[in-house]
Amino acid sequence: MTFLDQSYLQTSSWKPDLFKGKVVFVTGGAGSICRVQTEAMVLLGANAAIVGRNQQKTDDAAKDIESLRSGSKVVSLPNVDVRDVKQLAAAVAKTVKELGRIDYVIAGAAGNFLADFNHLSSNAFKSVIDIDLLGSFNTVKACFEELRKNKGAIIFVSATLHYYGVPFQLHVGAAKAGVDALSNALAVEFGPIGIRSNCIAPGPIADTEGMARLSGGEKGRIAEKVPLQRMGTKQDIADATVYLFSPSASYVTGDVLVVDGGAWQIGQGFGTQDYPVTFKKFFDAPKGGKL
Ligand code: HXC
Hints:
Strand content: 5-15%
Organism: Lodderomyces elongisporus (strain ATCC 11503 / CBS 2605 / JCM 1781 / NBRC 1676 / NRRL YB-4239) (Yeast)
CATH class: Alpha Beta
Largest sheet: 7 strands, parallel
Catalytic activity: a (2E,4E)-dienoyl-CoA + NADPH + H(+) = a 4,5-saturated-(3E)-enoyl-CoA + NADP(+); a (2E,4Z)-dienoyl-CoA + NADPH + H(+) = a 4,5-saturated-(3E)-enoyl-CoA + NADP(+)
Bound molecules: hexanoyl-coenzyme A
CATH topology: Rossmann fold
Pfam family, one: adh_short_C2
CATH superfamily: NAD(P)-binding Rossmann-like Domain
InterPro entries: DECR2-like, NAD(P)-bd_dom_sf, SDR_fam
Keywords: NADP, Oxidoreductase
Number of strands: 7
Radius of gyration: 19 Å
Distance between the termini: 42 Å
Order of helices and strands: HEHEHEHEHEHEHHHEHH
């Protein structure tokens, strides 16, 4: 099952062969948001390689995405942990062997759970920093020669959590602030060699693993409170991805494209705005204090 289908070619604003002959390498590509980013790229002519930790999930996603366009190739790269740069380097080598090149990189693999400071161990904090921030760095490190050769482009999947203080997300906010800083500095370092680096910061996107982990069943109320009066869709993020990789964005680098219906502008915090009530269970949990 895919989220997008052939109708995307008629209903979206993009040309069908926009990415013909190009290859996108996606970490977290079997997940929810990054999978649909990959679907859009494949529908629009690209081949893809998706990296995941789970064998079955990654293989199944690759097969489904490949079925979207006749003649497309989607390589499954399972059992790869973005915290290990050597595993990523092997995944890149396999991609180049099977697909010939890498033009675009989506660094999307991420880890998340709700935890207040008192219940967040040092290792829990480190795990999220390592997956989100070190994993993003490792992804670019492993793909660099291909990006340089092909004057490629990178999209980091960030968030809006660090624009203000979002409770129970201090680990993720800290990691994503680092991801934004990484992207900005890479945009400057890579500009002269023709590589662009940008972030997409999704807001509340419906039917994603992130929302399932974070919303606490508040879906309806979140939509009401977003200025554009709806939750985002995975296609909203896919469309932003297509724009940033397309020639239309050839002068855009070091940017963060926030795709959130205006939510962060009014400090929504994804439904944690009522946190003393909505998430009272976290305060009521037995005292943590674990190192
Ligand atoms: C407190 C927790 C916890 C929880 C895990 N830990 N879950 N602490 N509350 N709910 C702690 C563990 O106890 C352990 O610390 C440490 O975290 C590492 O846990 P492991 O299970 O050993 O780590 P690992 O197997 O590497 O798993 C990493 C993970 C896991 C982040 C904890 O949730 C994961 O793999 N997630 C990947 C998928 C995912 O999260 N997708 C959502 C992406 S959405 P101790 O001290 O006990 O050793 C997203 C959206 C971002 O990112 C922005 C949205 C707004």
